[in-house]
């Protein structure tokens, strides 16, 4: 089966040692693959490369077996993402923002309307349906961004720190949405600082440090934190000065 995402020796060198280097990563259909790492490790940079928001200085990236340069609008319509700030038109209400997000992915109007209603239910946003995005709290704006990224049942979902600003109820709702999409065959790449949270949902956890993938963590490991810091510490010891 074709991987939802493959990166091969992917790199973006910002100079002075910053960036990401030699990244070989896959996300399979039905898999939730988590990236964990300290601040500045390179998670966002990697996601921006995968989404074509940043040009690589080396290596390649494929979505559903096709190189990014060969993807057209229909292919990108089958990707959902939330990296950095959730995007929404501030003057438009939640319902209209969601419908528009679906329409921008070439989904017909009637289907876009029903996807928007369903997404609001999934992320408990229905009571804000007629509230403009600029009046939402930070957490509800995040929910709106997550709804827009997942409502159209993408084949590949890329989320950077999706639990940012979410309350515990939002975290649970997000977990349910991601599990449903993965069960339906989506590949999901998600970054997080919260090891316990990631362990609840991810099938695979990759550790990023100083722009490199340095190992994996078993989500069932009893002491995830200790194993994480042991990997990072070892990488810090081993790397050339
Ligand atoms: N546009 C840029 N120009 C130069 N350096 C950059 C740029 N973007 C990121 N960096 C550097 O690349 C490294 C990785 O940053 P990145 O934002 O990818 O880390 P992160 O793992 O997402 O961090 P955090 O957990 O804090 O969000 C950092 O050293 C950062 O300063």
TrEMBL record:
ABC transporter domain: residues covered: 5-235
UniProt cross-references to InterPro entries, sorted A to Z: AAA+_ATPase (IPR003593), ABC_transporter-like_ATP-bd (IPR003439), ABC_transporter-like_CS (IPR017871), P-loop_NTPase (IPR027417)
Keywords: ATP-binding, Nucleotide-binding, Transport
Superkingdom to which the source organism belongs: Bacteria
Entry keyword annotation includes Transcription regulation: no
Pfam families: ABC_tran (PF00005)
GO MF, one annotated term: ATP binding
Similarity comment: family membership: Belongs to the ABC transporter superfamily.
Name recorded for this polypeptide: ABC transporter ATP-binding protein
Protein's organism: Micromonospora craniellae
